[in-house]
């Protein structure tokens, strides 16, 4: 198994002017006819080498002349055509078996729907091609299938022809005028329901908008449609980007490896990011749909019009597009909550990855399977990097710079250096020192020291840079650091953005009356870990004007308190008092719910030198119980004040009320009194919202098991026909801390609803279990054994899904010696499996190194 290196990049030797594809779809197989107009770019190249994964070749022509077998070589991974002229038309006919495709890459079937997933390298399992993002071509696609079973036939671009044939088959032709790489090609065929709408662009073009889904689900598509129109308008207003085809189609399918895919004019979505109504979707689901719909739409400019030269540049489109979708969600909802949620997710996933043996720069240097690099580092840390550029340039310069980027590179496949060039060129700001962020891995730390005398406040900042995975030393970073100083009455004296650029540097602030209180890394302006001794957490929780630092201080104070308890100390009463003040704040309700949340187990675990979960649980549970007892009355009042009226509306006020009310219920649960049990049960039975139901069900499962069975039974019987809702059911049971979880998870695999071929279900049952620290890390190795068995089994069906599950073992290098040895045995067992996919091989071998 060989790695591919960025340093080996070579330009393609051939270009493809146009592609004409014809798909003849049948129940057992499909015939693909691919006619490419090709040109030699490198005159010396005699052989045309096309990517081709396990394809069955039927026939091959050059300029209408059928080629003899001596003119080409077909192997497992390529089709080489010998002695090609400098300009020619190549026609390839091949046969594929979408019905047997369980990897969900290329052309496959999700239930009865034919669909495709080609990013990054799926197209080569459809037809031989130069399957690399820097080969862009104009596609015309004809899809032919039985008219009754597959009345809807879709591909990229605009529909140019429909023919109903005498043999009961229908043929539809699509033409996409925008040159694109093969990874953006898409095809859908099915008997689908749909909703339709329209959007008029700023310059007056009318765009037809369609969302397709399984028949019967049409009523669940309206939130997605609303989100699409919001995204279209936002991109015009914020980036000056208009849509560029007559039609925008979205199709929801159940079997999908990730969230969604931005294929030109034909997005294909995991149905979890399209379908929602107030009875079946939680508030988080509604928000998730809004952001993923927007993300895929934004790719039309950042990804499709301007694409990546090679896959090492993935963050060029993903980091930028995530940043764009985060800003969109912040503009449409609560900006402070959005920022905190984004940081939370970065820390829970990306910081953990960055501290593991699979850490990599946002622009990796090598890969074995590109599928393994759709990571939170490339996506979320990549978005933080763009956010820092935005902060360094300021809103106005940033807009000038993105305008220049679009103008300079439209229709091209480019690199992150090209992007940085535009940022520099338009703003006049030198970003050469900033580039380090693209090439180094690991989360940088910043040590903060303060001194004060004679009215002079000195801030000494020292960067602590982790080594790369191969132990080489890495360099200090260049970044914006937003900060503020407060006087002792809580008034802000100063707010500014420092630029940190050296390993160690001092910042001096003069003419101060007394020692100020520091508020640092406001708005989380840089993705770093701040280390500050004796910070004034309680003070900042009370007075800081920065909503992020306020939250951060509450979290840090709680972390400090829990860690002192883990060392055997009593509960810090000042923390308890500060927490009490939070309960009284009259602020945005969702934000308040966040302030009241205790730090996650993952946050606490990331701070341990040798990870052990038991002491974390014990201390955290003790603190939670103490807070519940101390503030029972106040929290109950919060609950009651926000529980009524019983509505399911998804406006921001009602969503805020629900999130605060549910936080209150979670705070009260550790009391374990019959009264709280009854209250939770009543919430489950009476609430009209899925958010409320799921929170109640989770609390019943974990704390009031006497009531749980009835509620779980009720939930199952109500929703067993809605797979998306059943994901919630499986997740609650897999994440449970109740006795016997593993046994139940094993049994649930036999449930009629569960299907190992559907990634959403595997993620909610097995994936969630692998993140259930209590049972996954059980000291008898039962959790590790089970997950390892599943990885081995699923690797044969869907390698991408298997290597995703393997991520749970990333903590290996940092876990305590007992667990480490137990993990090692299982990891080795996976690695010894015959014909292990390169996806799983890459992840597991890195972890074990
Ligand atoms: N650009 C897409 C990345 C992707 C993907 C999507 C669905 C299934 C498999 C996939 N492999 C890679 C998703 C996005 O960032 O929008
Ligand atoms: Zn994306």
TrEMBL record:
UniProt keywords (A-Z) are:
Aminopeptidase, Hydrolase, Metal-binding, Metalloprotease, Protease, Zinc
Molecular function per GO: alanyl aminopeptidase activity; metallopeptidase activity; zinc ion binding
Q: Where is the Peptidase M1 alanyl aminopeptidase Ig-like fold domain?
A: 442-532
Required co-factor? Zn(2+)
Domain Peptidase M1 alanyl aminopeptidase C-terminal, residue spans:
535-849
A GO biological process held by the record: proteolysis
Reactions catalysed, semicolon-separated, are: Release of an N-terminal amino acid, Xaa-|-Yaa- from a peptide, amide or arylamide. Xaa is preferably Ala, but may be most amino acids including Pro (slow action). When a terminal hydrophobic residue is followed by a prolyl residue, the two may be released as an intact Xaa-Pro dipeptide
The keyword Iron-sulfur is annotated on this UniProt entry:
no
**Gene3D superfamilies tied to this protein:** 2.60.40.1840, 3.30.2010.30, Neutral Protease Domain 2, Peptidase M1, alanyl aminopeptidase, C-terminal domain, tricorn interacting facor f3 domain
What InterPro entries does the record point to?
Aminopeptidase_N-like_N (IPR045357), Aminopeptidase_N-like_N_sf (IPR042097), PepN_Ig-like_sf (IPR038438), Peptidase_M1 (IPR001930), Peptidase_M1_dom (IPR014782), Peptidase_M1_pepN (IPR012779), Peptidase_M1_pepN_C (IPR024601), Peptidase_M1_pepN_C_sf (IPR037144)
In which family does this protein belong, per the annotation?
Answer: Belongs to the peptidase M1 family.
Q: What is this protein called?
A: Aminopeptidase N
The protein's organism comes out as Sulfurimonas aquatica
């Amino acid at each position: 198994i060989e790695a591919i290196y960025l340093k080996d990049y070579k330009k393609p030797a051939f270009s493809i002017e146009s592609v004409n594809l014809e798909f003849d779809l049948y129940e057992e197989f499909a015939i693909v006819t691919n006619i490419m107009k090709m040109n030699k770019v490198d005159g010396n190249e005699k052989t045309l080498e096309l990517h081709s994964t396990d394809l069955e070749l039927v026939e091959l022509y050059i300029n209408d002349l059928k080629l003899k077998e001596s003119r080409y070589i077909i192997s497992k991974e390529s089709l080489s055509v010998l002695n090609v002229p400098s300009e020619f038309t190549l026609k390839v006919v091949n046969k594929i078996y979408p019905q047997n495709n369980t990897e969900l890459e290329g052309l496959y079937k999700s239930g009865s729907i034919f669909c495709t997933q080609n990013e990054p390298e799926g197209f080569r399992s459809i037809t031989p091609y130069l399957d690399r993002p820097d080969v862009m071509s104009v596609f015309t696609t004809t899809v032919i299938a039985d008219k009754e079973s597959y009345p809807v036939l879709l591909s990229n671009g605009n529909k140019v022809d429909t023919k109903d044939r005498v043999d009961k088959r229908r043929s539809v032709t699509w033409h996409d005028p925008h040159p694109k790489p093969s990874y953006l090609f898409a095809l859908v065929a099915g008997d689908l329901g749909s909703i339709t709408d329209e959007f008029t662009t700023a310059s007056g073009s009318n765009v037809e908008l369609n969302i397709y889904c399984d028949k019967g689900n049409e009523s669940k598509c309206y939130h997605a449609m609303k989100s699409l129109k919001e995204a279209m308008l936002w991109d015009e207003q914020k980036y000056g980007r208009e849509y560029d085809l007559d039609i925008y189609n979205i199709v929801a399918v159940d079997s999908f490896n990730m969230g969604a895919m931005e294929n030109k004019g034909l997005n294909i979505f995991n149905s979890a990011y399209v379908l929602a109504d107030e009875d079946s979707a939680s508030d988080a689901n509604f928000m998730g749909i809004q952001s993923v719909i927007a993300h895929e739409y934004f790719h039309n400019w950042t990804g499709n019009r301007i694409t990546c030269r090679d896959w090492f540049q993935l963050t060029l489109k993903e980091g930028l597009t995530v940043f764009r979708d985060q800003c969109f969600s912040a503009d449409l909802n609560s900006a402070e909550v959005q920022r905190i949620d984004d940081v939370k997710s970065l820390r829970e996933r990306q910081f953990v990855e960055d501290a593991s043996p699979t850490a990599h720069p946002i622009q990796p240097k090598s890969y074995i399977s590109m599928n393994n690099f759709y990571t939170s580092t490339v996506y979320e840390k990549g978005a933080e990097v763009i956010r820092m550029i935005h902060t360094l340039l300021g809103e106005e310069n940033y807009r000038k710079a993105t305008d220049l980027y679009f103008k300079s590179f439209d229709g091209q496949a480019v690199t992150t250096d090209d992007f940085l060039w535009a940022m520099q060129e338009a703003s006049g700001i030198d970003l050469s020192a900033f580039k380090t962020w693209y090439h180094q891995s690991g989360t940088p730390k910043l040590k903060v020291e303060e001194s004060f005398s004679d009215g002079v406040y000195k801030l000494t900042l020292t960067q602590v840079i982790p080594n790369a995975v191969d132990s080489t030393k890495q360099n200090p970073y260049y970044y914006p650091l937003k900060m503020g100083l407060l006087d002792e009455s809580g008034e802000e004296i100063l707010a500014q953005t420092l630029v940190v650029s050296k390993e160690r540097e001092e910042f001096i602030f003069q003419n101060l009356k007394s020692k100020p209180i520091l508020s640092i890394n406001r708005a989380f302006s840089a993705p770093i870990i701040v280390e500050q001794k004796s910070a004034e957490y309680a003070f900042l929780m009370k007075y800081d004007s920065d909503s992020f630092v306020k939250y951060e201080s509450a979290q840090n104070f709680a972390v400090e308190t829990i860690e002192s308890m883990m060392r055997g100390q009593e509960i810090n009463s000042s923390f308890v008092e500060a927490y009490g003040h939070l309960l009284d704040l009259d602020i945005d309700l969702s934000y308040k719910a966040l302030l009241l949340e205790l730090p996650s187990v993952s946050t606490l675990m990331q701070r341990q030198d040798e990870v052990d979960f038991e002491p974390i649980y014990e201390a955290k549970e003790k603190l939670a119980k103490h807070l519940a007892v101390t503030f029972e009355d106040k929290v109950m009042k919060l609950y009651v004040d926000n529980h009524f009226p019983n509505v399911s509306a998804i406006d921001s006020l009602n969503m805020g009320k629900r999130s605060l009310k549910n936080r209150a219920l979670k705070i009260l649960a550790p009391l374990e009194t019959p009264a709280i049990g009854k209250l939770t049960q009543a919430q489950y039975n009476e609430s009209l919202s899925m958010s409320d139901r799921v929170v109640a069900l989770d609390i019943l499962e974990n704390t009031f098991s006497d009531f749980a069975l009835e509620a779980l039974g009720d939930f199952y019987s109500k929703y067993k026909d809605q797979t998306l809702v059943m994901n919630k059911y499986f997740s609650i049971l897999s994440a449970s801390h109740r006795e016997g979880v593993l046994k139940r998870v094993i049994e649930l695999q036999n449930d009629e609803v569960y299907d190992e071929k559907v990634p959403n279900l595997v993620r909610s049952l097995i994936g969630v279990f692998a993140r259930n620290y209590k049972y996954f890390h059980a000291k008898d190795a039962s959790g590790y054994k089970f997950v390892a068995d599943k990885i081995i089994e699923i690797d044969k069906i869907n390698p991408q899904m298997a290597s995703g599950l393997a991520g749970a073992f990333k903590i290996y290098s940092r876990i305590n010696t007992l667990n480490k040895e137990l993990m090692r045995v299982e990891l080795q067992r996976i690695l010894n499996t015959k014909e292990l996919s390169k996806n799983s091989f890459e992840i597991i071998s890195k972890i074990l190194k």
